[in-house]
Specification:
about 35% helix, Aspartate Aminotransferase, domain 2, 9 helices, Aspartate Aminotransferase, domain 1, 3-stranded antiparallel sheet, 7-stranded mixed sheet, alpha/beta
Length: about 350
Amino acid sequence: MKKHNFSAGPAILPQQAIENGAKAVLDFEGMGLSILEISHRSKEFQAVMDETEALFKELLNIPEGYHVLFLGGGASTQFYMVPFNLLEKKAGYVNTGVWAKKAMKEAKLFGDVECLASSEDKNCSYIPKGFAIPTDLDYLHITTNNTIFGTEYHEDIDSPVPLVADMSSDILSRPVDVSKYALIYGGAQKNLAPAGVTFVVVREDVLGKVSRAIPTMIDYRTHINNGSMFNTPPVFPIYVMRETLRWLKGLGGVEKMQEINRAKAKLLYDEIDRNAVFKGTAAVEDRSLMNVCFVPNNGYEDLYDAFMDFAKERGMVGVKGHRLVGGFRASIYNAMPIESVQALVDCMQEFEKAHAK
C-alpha cells in the first residue's frame, strides 16, 4: 500500500533527493567513498557547499549584503544565538505559539523582551495584526509559520526596526522579500533536508553591534568568515538540501511552488469546510499552507480514534495533531504531491459517508 506522509517533521522529501542521497551514501561522486565518510574539506564536498549556497540565494532572490550559513543545532539554538548577536537592550517578539514562546524565553537571558502582540487569547488560532512596533527595539522577531496551531504569515510585514524571522516550516514555500529582513533562520527538516542542518540568512550590517563578548561558535561572523566550515558541518543533510534545491529549481522555482501549495491547501481546506465530521481550528485568513489543523466537529468528538484508525488503514501517516492541542494535522510541505492530499480528502469523504448523522 502506498504511504502518504503528512508528518510535521522530519518530513517528506522529494523522491529524487532521497534516491540521490541513497546513491551518495553508497558512492559519492564516483569517489569509491560514502558521503557519510568523506572529508568536508575535500574539493568534491566544497563543490556541494558552494552550489547549495548559490541555489539558496538564487531561489530566494537574496540581495547583496547578505550571507547564507549552514549550521548545526536546529532552530532551537538560533533562539539564543540571535539575541546573543543582536540584542543589546530590548527586543520585541510576537507570540503566535509554542516556538515563538521558546524563542522569547531564550532572548530574556540577554536583555529586555517586550511581547508586542499575542494570539494566546484564542489558543493561537490567528496571526496578530495592527500592533505598534517601538522604534527603539534592537530587533523584532516573528515566527512565520506555526506548525502546532496551523497559522501562517502570508505576506512580509513592514518593520521600522531589524526584522528577524523563524522560517523553519515555510522556507521556500512562497516568494519572500528578503530585503525586509535582517535575519532569517530555520531548521531544514520540514522543507529542505533531513534533520541536522540549520539555515541562516543574515544581513552583515546588523552584526558586531553588541557590547558583550560572543563565544566563537555562537558568533555569526565566525561562520561567515569560514564559509560555514569553522567546524565540521552537517555534510549529508547539506548534500540532500542541494538535491532538494535542484528539484525545486527544476519545478519552476518558488513562484511555481507557491502556486502548487495554494492548490493543495485549498483542496484540503475546502473538504474540511464541507465535511460534516470535521472543522478547522485556525482563522480562515491566517490558515497555514504548510500545516492544516482540524478537529472532529461538534457532536463527532467520540470519533477521533476511529478516524485515526481509518486513515492509517488507508496509508495516511502522521495525521495525529500535536500532543499539546490534539485533533488532526496534515503537514503538506513542498514535497507533498497533490495526489496525496487528494487521497486524504477521499479518505475523509469515505469516513463521512460511514459516520455522518
